């Protein structure tokens, strides 16, 4: 066993310790490898020829390789990434573009002693493969397998689970401050930014502080001109203009010429106290190594500008104009994903179609998104009305406050974000939109348990956060058809509203069932014992639980809540007639819809005597990746789990024993 070289927080005892890791697979990251690859050598009879990757158990195993072997190794890495993502889904284009860069980084720097940071972490598949996780790579994004982002619990080579962009330069600033005060002040800190991460404001806050502190940080700018879509940034446009030019050497600020000073990115960085080098060919491994070695000797912060091609080496990704197959579901690796496979489905598709409809009817309706026009279903809206779609880059705060300004000016903005990214703009939603009572509509996609992308992408906070914003209407469609109804309802309101809906398509809930306005919808009318209130997609679990309970002799009433706030008084009055009220949500239970319903029932009762309310939802925890249905089942939020919890509350049946028997 070796100790994790990352520093442990002082004075926190066992809780502050980073768990020791078994590093048998990683090898000795401090030694120079004696392995020499000879791929042309004959393999033993009956055995497949060895691959280059089989000889790489740790980054140190890369350092004895020549240029031709490195290029062959890069091809093998790309093949493994394509093969695995085709089977498991995941981030493809971004990872194909950084293979050579990752090889160069691990040949120059001594991870984990030297600290490699990634922004964003969706470009770290090659990093995982080269740091002892090649064999496990087949388990990518599978429950119990490798995470789709860096993971501190997975490897000592991973420092930050960075899937929310634009944060890594702030991490680097803090780590640099700690390094110079540590017992090993010579360790180097490398922050890889790009793929849109420099469109977020926090990146510039970090950059400003790095220059002010003269922090010894190497900033590798992975410039592929894109995030999900082509990057929204005037600064990046000036970088792109450099692409036809010859590579430029490292030079001090005084090296700027009058002709290039105004538009050259060096002017911007160096005005902040950050040296600039580049641009360099991001697919030339040996050239990158030379640039990185020179940059490593810099006493202060330095940007190494690297030009890469997103999706490199895989024609379907290179030819995908929208996002270079940035993220994909499972597909045929030979043909590549079809257009139908890449298109939004279920709720996101319904939202996109609804936006086209209301856009035709109401010219004041505009769409705002943060580098997610494609995934949120807004591409058709933007194609129809290019001047009415505002993509602000990876800047959720900017998206929300600019929407507030649009609403003040008489427009009706619809801000489309993933639920997990809405939390980044809570202050703006609360004080810039909510405080002013502005008619901004938030379309929160991927709400609830999202599955394979892990703890940073589960959209479980949105209901709880939205309930803290006074005057904000909260709508939760249980089917895609409800999305259009709720969008029209929200646009007719005088104040702000949020529509939160899950990833993908619904289960068995009948598509023909659609509500209206802010009213709840009674799905089943049962006896006086149990009333099940399902929020959004959890209506499926409520109706499924009702069927299980019916087999046990209990005839429950089931409601589709639809409007979390304001709650339908008719639904509340009906629920109050039942002995037990059970609320179901796929958001965090503390401070969520169930708690709000319970309090509303209590407020409606004389002498504030509450109904017996069982609130079922997601615990306050960072949930690992896995299929959404499996996670919900483990949390007891499927039909059998809900029925089990209901029986336990009604009759004192041991929930665990009953649940096991039913499964």
Overview of the structural elements:
Helix 13 runs parallel beside helix 19 (480-491) and helix 15 packs parallel to helix 17 (426-434). The chain is α/β, with parallel strands linked by helices and 663 residues long. Mean pLDDT is 84; it is low at 7-47, 242-261 and 655-663. Strand 12 (473-475), helix 19 and strand 13 (497-500) form a beta-alpha-beta unit. The radius of gyration is 27 Å and the shape is globular. The chain has 25 helices and 19 strands. The strands form four sheets. It has a seven-stranded mixed sheet, sandwiched between helices. A five-stranded parallel sheet has the order 2-3-4-6-5, with helices on both faces. Strands 14-16-15-18-19 form a five-stranded mixed sheet, with helices on both faces.
What are the salient characteristics of this protein?
663 residues; seven-stranded mixed sheet; five-stranded parallel sheet; globular; alpha/beta
């Amino acid at each position: 066993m070796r100790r994790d070289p990352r520093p442990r927080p002082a004075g926190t005892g066992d809780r502050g310790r980073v768990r020791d890791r078994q590093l048998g697979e990683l090898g000795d990251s401090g030694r120079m490898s004696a392995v020499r690859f000879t791929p042309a050598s004959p393999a033993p009879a009956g055995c497949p020829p060895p691959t280059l990757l089989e000889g790489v158990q740790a980054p140190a195993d890369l350092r004895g390789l020549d240029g031709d072997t490195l290029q062959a190794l890069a091809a093998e890495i790309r093949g493994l990434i394509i093969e695995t993502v085709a089977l498991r889904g995941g981030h493809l284009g971004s990872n194909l573009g950084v293979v050579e860069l990752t090889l160069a980084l691990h040949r120059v720097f001594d991870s984990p002693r030297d600290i490699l940071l990634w922004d964003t972490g969706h470009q770290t598949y090659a990093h995982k493969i080269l740091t002892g996780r090649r064999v496990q790579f087949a388990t990518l994004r599978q429950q119990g397998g490798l995470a789709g982002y860096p993971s501190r619990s997975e490897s000592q080579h991973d420092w930050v689970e960075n899937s929310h962009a634009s944060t890594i330069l702030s991490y680097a600033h803090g780590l640099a401050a700690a390094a110079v005060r540590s017992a090993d002040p010579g360790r180097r800190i490398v922050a890889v930014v790009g793929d849109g991460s420099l469109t977020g404001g926090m990146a510039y806050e970090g950059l400003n502080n790095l220059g002010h502190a003269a922090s010894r940080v190497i900033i590798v700018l992975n410039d592929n001109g894109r995030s999900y879509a082509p990057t929204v940034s005037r600064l990046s446009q000036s970088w792109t203009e450099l692409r036809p030019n010859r590579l430029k050497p490292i030079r001090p600020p005084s090296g700027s010429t009058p002709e290039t000073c105004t538009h050259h990115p060096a002017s911007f960085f160096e005005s902040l106290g950050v040296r600039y080098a580049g641009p360099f060919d991001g697919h030339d491994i040996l050239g990158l190594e030379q640039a990185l070695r020179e940059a490593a000797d810099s006493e202060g912060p330095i940007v190494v500008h690297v030009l890469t091609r997103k999706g490199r080496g895989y024609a379907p990704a290179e030819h995908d104009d929208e996002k270079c197959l940035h993220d994909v579901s499972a597909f045929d690796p030979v043909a590549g994903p079809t257009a139908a496979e890449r298109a939004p489905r279920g709720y996101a598709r319904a939202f996109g179609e609804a936006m086209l409809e209301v856009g035709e009817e109401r010219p004041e309706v505009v769409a705002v998104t943060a580098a997610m026009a494609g995934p949120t279903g807004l591409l058709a809206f933007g194609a129809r009305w290019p001047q009415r779609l505002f993509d602000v880059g990876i800047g959720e705060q900017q998206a929300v406050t600019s929407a507030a300004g649009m609403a003040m000016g008489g427009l009706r903005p619809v801000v489309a974000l993933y639920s997990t990214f809405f939390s980044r703009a809570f202050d703006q939603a609360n004080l810039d939109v909510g405080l002013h009572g502005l008619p901004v509509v938030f379309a929160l996609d991927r709400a609830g348990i999202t599955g394979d992308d892990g703890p940073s992408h589960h959209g479980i906070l949105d209901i709880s956060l939205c309930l803290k914003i006074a005057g904000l209407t909260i709508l939760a469609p249980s089917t895609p058809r409800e999305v259009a109804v709720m969008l029209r309802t929200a646009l007719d309101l005088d104040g702000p509203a949020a529509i939160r809906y899950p990833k993908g398509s619904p289960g068995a809930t009948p598509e023909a069932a659609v509500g209206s306005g802010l009213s709840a919808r009674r799905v089943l009318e049962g006896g006086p014992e149990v009333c099940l209130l399902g929020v959004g997609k959890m209506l499926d679990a409520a109706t499924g639980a009702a069927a299980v309970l019916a087999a046990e002799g209990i005839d429950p009433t089931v409601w589709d809540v639809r409007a979390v706030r304001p709650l339908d008084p008719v639904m509340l009055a009906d629920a109050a007639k039942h002995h037990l009220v059970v609320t179901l949500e796929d958001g965090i239970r503390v401070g969520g819809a169930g708690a709000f319903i319970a309090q509303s029932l209590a407020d409606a009762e004389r002498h504030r005597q509450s109904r017996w309310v069982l609130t079922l939802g997601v615990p306050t925890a960072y949930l690992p990746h896995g299929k959404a249905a499996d996670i919900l089942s483990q949390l007891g939020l499927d039909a059998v789990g809900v029925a089990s919890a209901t029986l336990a509350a009604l009759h004192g049946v041991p929930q665990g024993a009953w649940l096991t028997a039913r499964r």
